[in-house]
Structures are given as C-alpha cells and as structure tokens.
Amino acid sequence: MTAALQTNAPSRKIGARLGRLLIVAALGFVAPMAHAVAASTPLVTDVLPSGVPLPAPAPDFAPAVSDASTELLGNAGGVRPWLDRHGVQINLQDVEELWGLASGGVRPGPTYDGITAVTLQLNTQQAFGWHDGLFNISALQIRGRSLTNERLQSLNAVSGYDAGRSTRLFELWYGQGFFGNRLDVRVGSVDLDTEFLVSQNASLFLNASFGWPLSTSSNLYSGGPSWPYSAVGVRVKWAPAHPLVLMGAVTDDNPTHGPFYSSVAANQRDPSGTQFSTEGGALFIGEAQLWVDAARRLATGDSAALPGTWKVGALFDTGRFPDQRYDDRGGLLGSPESDGRPFYHRGNWMAYTVIDQMLWRAAKGQQKAISVFIRATANDGVRNRFSSEVEAGLTFDGLVPGRIDDTIGVAWGTTLYGRRALKSARDAMRLGGSGADDLKPENHLELTWQIAVTPYLNLQPDLQYFWNVGGVARSSAGGIANGFVAGLNMTTTF
After folding, report:
1. For residue 207, with 0-12 CB atoms within 10 Å meaning exposed, 13-18 middle and 19 or more buried, which class applies?
2. Which residues span the domain enclosing 305?
3. Mind telling me which Pfam families this protein's record contains (predicted)?
4. Is residue 161 part of a domain?
5. Is the pLDDT of residue 390 over 60?
6. Cis before residue 49, ω within 30 degrees of 0?
7. Cβ–Cβ under 8 Å, residues 99 and 111
8. From CA 453, how far away is CA 397, in angstroms rounded?
9. Do 114 and 68 form a contact (C-beta atoms < 8 A)?
10. Is the Cβ–Cβ distance between 152 and 158 less than 8 Å?
11. ∠46-52-56 over CA atoms, to 5°?
12. Which of 119-128, 133-142, 192-201, 302-311 has the lowest mean pLDDT?
C-alpha cells in the first residue's frame, strides 16, 4: 500500500498542478492585478488584414505609442513632431505581393496584388482640449489581380489583400473614452474584424481565413463589415476589472447594400466606400476577452511569464437568409424543376471562441517564444452553407539564429458544410440537377516566415497547400487538382 502511494504521488502532484492551471485560466480575472484601461487608440497595423507584426497575445490596454524610428520617413523633416503636438497622426502603409500557383488549381501562373493604406487620427485633447476623444479616418487603394479567383478557385482566399480593385474609404468614426477610458465608445462607419473574432497570433498568416473567417465572409451579406468594407454602427468596449474586457457592436449587416446572391461584385456596388447603407438588417456582435498569465501565478521564483488571451463571442443578424436546400415553392433546390430561388428565413447567428496562448519563453521579458492559436466557430446549418470552422497554428518568435525580430509560423484551417448544403448536393447528384458535385471540406496549410529587414520593412515568404479545392471532392465532376501556392509579401510603413 505504501509503495503504491509513493508511486502515484508524482502523478497526483501533476494532476493537482494541471487542475490549478485550469482554475487559474478560467477564473483569472478574480485575482487582483495592476490597474488597466481600455485602449482608445487603435494599433497602426489594424488597417491591415493579415501579415502584421505580432503584439503579445493579450489585450493591449495602453494607447499605441508613436515612434517615428519605426517608419521609413522618420520625423519627415520635423513635420511629424509638429503634427503630434497638435494631436494629429498620419500613417501610411504599403503592401506589395507576388503570388504563383505552382501546381494544381485551374491555371498555374503568377499574379500581383497590392494595397496602400492611409490613416489620419486626431486626438481631441491635444487638438482643442476635449478629453479622451479620437477621430479616425482611413482609406485604401487596392490594386492587382486575384490568384484565388483566376487561377486557384479555392474557397479560402490565398491573401487577405486579395480583394476587388478600388480606391475607397475604409473607416470613419469618432471614439470617446469615459471613466479614465475604461469605457470606450466608437460611432461611425466601423470595420468589425479589426477587433472582433480576431486572433493576434493568426494575424501573422497571409491566408484570408486567418483574419475574418470563411464562415462569416460567405454566410453574411457582402461578407459582413470586414476588410475592405465597413458599416454604419456603434462599438462599445468596457474594461470592468482587469483582466476582463467586454465588447459589443451594432452595425448595418450589409455594407454594400446588395442581394445575398449577386452577379455584381461587392466592390462594384460601392466602389468608393461612401454608400453608408442603413437599409437591410442589423448585425449584433458581442465578445468577452480574458487575459491570463497562469505561469506567473503558479510559478515559484523568477519564472518566465506566459501571457494569453481567451475569447468567447457570438453574433446575431436580423436580416433574411437563404435556405440551403429548399426553394421558395417548397421544392428542392437540387431538382432540375426548381426555379432556383431559395426560401428565405429571418435571422442568423454564429458563436465562436478564440485562444491565443504563449506556450514557452526562453526567459522572462525575452522575445524568444512559442505561441499557439485556436479559433472555432459554429452556426446554423439551415441558413448557412458553412456551419462550422476551425483554424489552429503555432508561431515561433526569435528562434532563427541572429534574427531575434523574425517570426515563423505554421497553421491549418478547414470549414465544414452545413447539413442542408450537403443534402442539397446529394439531391442534385440523385436528381441530375445543377451543382451535382460531391462536397468535401476544403483544407489549407500555410508555412510563413516574417523577416524584419528594418523596423519599417518586413519581407514575408509564404507557402500554402490546398486540398479539396473549392470544397469539392477531386474525384467529382467539378473537382480541381490540389493546389500549391508560393508567395512573397513586402510591407512598408512610411
């Protein structure tokens, strides 16, 4: 009996330690921590959808600090310091991408895409003495061609910058802080994917699904208020007690005011981004963020902190959404006799969770670290073609010898079809209707290396592999060969 107890003692200690870790992670907000306030100033990189430098995987409660040394133009001959004194900040970023479909898809070959983003922010306290106010306006110039649409034909866009060509307004809002900025309210035309549903570690990757996921971009009108579109609405961010942050927003659900199914591209319906549509439904979204540092709380001595952010959220859209199996006469959409017009339901929803967690750090305060991200979504399988989605990946910071500011990442993602979409495809195969293909979840794998050439210039070689391209089995009539894509992203901050 004694020997057995001695043998099981280490396992009991490990189990107890794991139990404490889970308790700390779930109830971390109970322990007192340093005072923190909600951020009112967005990060400069918020205007970029992917391939951005990684902040620590925790909410950034402090306003971003202006540092001209991290920008190509520096002080711009003294112009930037003068503007800063008057509460004005102007940020200019340029992204150039070269992509090549090496094999698979429908037409191997190269493409180019790029964007230039300009953001102007006015701090009202510095400008004219109004405390805790911020005016923000940004614009995009999007150019190039789409490798995803023209060569690969995948469901998940190869790049977050793979968007329709246009020169457009991006965001236009006024933010006001209350109670020492613990409460932060924005009103205007806002982009939800700069704050909601986002994983900070996933923002390293270039594939668009690691930003705003396919389960929202395909299931909402015009993809919802996400890059490069914004929508009229209100966003509220509240930090009731560190380390808990609560966010909510209400926006118009259709930023370009078009039908759910349309032969006209969203960017063509609103090429300038100035439509400011208030018709259609309303989109409600809420998210709770919990900052955890379980390692510091459980460790003894000077142990490396392992920060993380755990998020849960949900959205509800009051608009009308198409049934994925039945038409407006009650027949099957997959039948040759169908009129092709789906029956529409009122309302739609989605729930999600996001985990960003540092797993290992060489020493406290050092950049050498390994982090993980996981994001999962779930929604209704009646109204939505895609009912669930999972992305996960690892990032390795500062592990390349002599390259302390570089980050390497590997990530995978997939999206599962809803039950009615699957049944509709089987109906079409059985009855000989249109779209008679065997649906299979598309999977994509990405390997990327963000190279910090200078503080203002990043080069990012990138490799991606797709299978079940287009969400169709390769053996099906409409099947597409597995695709291998190579690319290079260059991001410059002026």
Report:
1. buried
2. 38-493
3. OprB
4. yes
5. yes
6. no
7. yes
8. 15
9. no
10. yes
11. 85
12. 302-311
Q: How far apart are CA 198 and CA 205, in angstroms?
A: 12
Distance separating alpha carbons of residues 231 and 287, to the nearest angstrom = 18
* CA atoms within 13 Å, Cβ hemisphere of 242: 16
The type of residue at 343 is F
Amino acid sitting at position 443? N
Beta carbons of 302 and 398 less than 8 angstroms apart: no
- DSSP annotation of 197 reads S
Q: Is the bond preceding 255 in cis, omega lying within 30 degrees of 0?
A: no
CATH number at residue 230: 2.40.160.180
Three-state DSSP state, 445: strand
Q: 165-195: buried (b, 16+ CB within 10 Å) or exposed (e) per residue?
A: bbebbbbbbebbbeeebbbbbbebbbbbbbb
| Residue ranges with strand state E in 73-218 | 88-105, 109-123, 133-144, 166-178, 183-190
For residue 50 the two structure tokens come to 């992917």
Q: Compute the mean pLDDT over every residue in the chain, rounded to the nearest whole number.
A: 86
Which pLDDT score, from 0 to 100, does residue 478 have? 75
* 338 domain-assigned: yes
Question: What are the phi and psi torsion angles at 385 (to 5°)?
Answer: -65, -35
Specify the number of domains making up the chain: 1
Question: 287, 197 in Cβ contact below 8 A?
Answer: yes
Q: Is 5 a member of any domain?
A: no
C-alpha to C-alpha distance for 456 and 437, rounded to whole angstroms: 47
CA distance 490 to 93: 11
CA 322 to CA 342: how far, in whole Å?
Answer: 6
In angstroms, how far is the first alpha carbon of the chain from the final one?
71
- Residue scoring higher pLDDT (1 or 250): 250
Please state, as a whole number, how many other Cβ atoms lie within 10 Å of the Cβ of residue 283: 26
- Residue 54 CA to residue 491 CA, distance in Å, equals 14
Is residue 441 situated within a structural domain?
yes
Q: What is the pLDDT of residue 296?
A: 59
How big is the chain, counted in residues?
A: 494
The percent of residues above 90 in pLDDT, for the chain, comes to: 63
Tokens standing for 405?
């500011």
Give the whole-angstrom CA distance, residue 39 versus residue 238.
Answer: 9
Residue in this structure with the two tokens 């059985």, named with its chain if needed? 430
